[in-house]
Amino acid sequence: MKKALITGISGFVGSHLAEHLLSKGFEVHGTIRPRSRRENIKHIESKLKLFDVDIKEEHSIMRVLKESKPDYIFHLAAQSFVPTSFSAPQETINTNVNGTISVLEAVRELNLDSVIQIAGSSEEYGIVFLNELPIEETNLFRPVNPYGVSKVGQDLVAAGYYNSYKIKSIVTRAFNHTGPRHGEQFVTSNFAKQIAEIESGKRKPIIKVGNLDAWRDFTDVRDIVRAYTLAVEMCDPGEAYNICSEKAHSIKELLNMLISLSKNEIIMEQDPARMRPSDNEVIQGDCSKFREKTGWRPEIPLKKTLEDLLNYWRELV
Q1: Where do the domains of the chain lie, and which CATH numbers do they carry?
Q2: Which of 169, 177, 273, 289 has the fewest Cβ atoms within 10 angstroms?
């Protein structure tokens, strides 16, 4: 039985990854922050080995790795909300970069042979010119927010540990992904929650929106975690791989798809508080490098993803 450790296992992606690995027969361990909420994993918690850990504390990570000795480490723990990175840039960079160093240092100190997936992001690319689309792994990093800067830091730290110590790190640069259990602060999930509240009579039939003109490359989270598993099993250490649908949709298009799934008459209203200090016009990826290595392709249609997300919020609301 293969053993996997997921940092940030109770998060949106971590919980889906835990489900996927359990279905494949893995023994699954995971780190959670002390006093963190466990709603996302309560249905599988009895099948997991959990550790209360602050990811920035190397001695704590050392203890976890010494006990678990995983074949694979999926490093997902991070401050992952872009607007929060503007209000808390130091905390974002500290958590994301130093947290990654803690994991890699512990692997080095313990001389483990684990394969480590580092969860990068399309936000690393930042400003992308139209003649550079779709985005390949060789595109320049021009991050426009502290979250993107922190992910570039993770990426470079992983490369440094591979080049210096041959630590088996693989960077996955996932583009936007969503689905059930996505935090309400993220755009598609926030729209879905507002619609569910409108349907239940808890909100007037008005959706508050930010920038609807941005175009993003969305993939279902369940396809993403399948990709992460293939990455550690089939990809080359020291390399970075884009993971995406290779199709861009405007945020307005996504909102209209969600509204079409409701019988209610709903109007949109822009909220200045939802606008970012800076934003990318178009983010669309090329994942041919990853596809050629693993054969992976997204399987879940976007409309199905959004329908499942809306139904998730309908149950909660």
Answers
A1: 3-178+218-246+289-294 (3.40.50.720), 187-215+248-284+300-316 (3.90.25.10)
A2: 273
